[in-house]
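Service request form, structural biology core

Requester: graduate student, group of Dr. S.
Request type: structure prediction, single chain
Budget code: on file
Notes: please return the result as structure tokens.

Sequence provided:
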Amino acid sequence: MHNINREEVVNALRGCVDPEIGINIVDLGLIHWITIDEKNNMTVKLTMTSPMCPVTSVILADVQLRLEHLQDAGEVTIDLVWEPAWTPEMITEEVRMSMQV
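Core staff response, request fulfilled:
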């Protein structure tokens, strides 16, 4: 069994795109925290751009599936959090410049 690392998790999460905005959840700044234990159990704390986000369930399901499909993945826990609240400043600088946010 190989040990999953943070880079693998982040790369998998880059495949999760907010269907309304068309930008991946990593670059949007939705990921707050990632932990991986010695058994490759992963916990991800993430937020949405708004508590009223109509695609929350789609994004959460996509995150779950992508992480479960990592080689040697253990259990995946996703915590939807609202603190700190998302702001456009959380978007990566590169994406902000392309969006002119």
